[in-house]
Amino acid sequence: MTWRCTGLRWADGRPVMGWRGPAGRETTSRLVYGSPLVFTVRDERRCLGVWRAGKRTPCPTARTVPGRTGSAQCPECARLDRSFSVAADTNAADPRTYRVYLAWFGPGLVKVGITAEERGAARLLEQGAVTWSWLGRGPLMAARRTEELLRAALGVPDRIAYARKRAVRGHLPPAPERAREVAGLYARAAALAGWPESLERVACGVTDHAAVFWPDGPPAPARVVTELVSGGSIAGGLVAAAGPDLHFADGLVLDTRLMAGWGLGVASADAVTDVPLAPVPPALPPAEQDGLF
After folding, report:
1. pLDDT at 288
2. Considering only 93-97, 100-104, 164-168, 193-197, which range has the smallest mean pLDDT?
3. Rounded CA gap, 48 and 95, in Å?
4. Are 261 and 229 in contact (CB under 8 A)?
5. Distance (Å, rounded) from C-alpha 144 to C-alpha 152?
6. Residue 290 — very low, low, confident or very high, per pLDDT cuts 50/70/90?
7. CB distance 243 to 162 below 8 Å
8. For residue 235, what are the β-bridge partners?
9. Confidence of residue 286 (pLDDT cuts 50, 70, 90)
10. Which are the contacts of 65, defined by CB distance < 8 A and separation ≥ 6?
11. 113 vs 96, 98, 158, 206, 212, CA distance in Å?
């Protein structure tokens, strides 16, 4: 049975690739900056089923999934996933403690969001947040109301498209400037009236992920993979990872959400990248919804 990629994860603050193999076995492999990353795409892209509470329920029909979509789920598994989702507001009874955060991705690109406290900073790494700070902690509904308060009062969105995030990565200001922007927005948020009483304030503590994402300096993204195809290959030297994106030394960017569901194998020694690509634009207009491209 083919081992299928389940996408990039952040474990202990480091990027790892997830895999699903025979008998539903799940494992990961570490990604190392400065090392070559070469693979070929095999078979067809299949639905990975539903992942919930650290356990995957396989798709009963293992349906094929289009190569350009960011989700390795068939429509039925996607609906089941969203039927018990905090993000989709279909799990309002979740008893866990949640945290509200401010996340900075580039000049003027700041969002507000919530994440389960038990996950720590994993959600910030998954989204590619370069700089960030907690705002508060409390029950889910209090965290959600605070998120809505900030969106309405400060005009801060709760989603920023990945395409906008990657477009600015090669032109980021220094860390002190990033920290000042986050701290300034924190101060404006903290001064607002109307915070839920059940939400505990958390003092501003700015964290910067630049050294985790690109220890040798920010990448200069030039081309982005738009689709993986059976028989195609990816070849290059890995220099950075941010959110779901892998950055290569030649300016190539691979959104690992496109890898999920594919069987991947070792490519030949002379392999070159031969999958559909598109240029990374220098700037993108505002987008209301998060998406791939």
Report:
1. 41
2. 93-97
3. 27
4. no
5. 13
6. very low
7. yes
8. 38
9. very low
10. 45, 46, 47, 71, 72, 73, 74, 261
11. 16, 10, 6, 15, 21
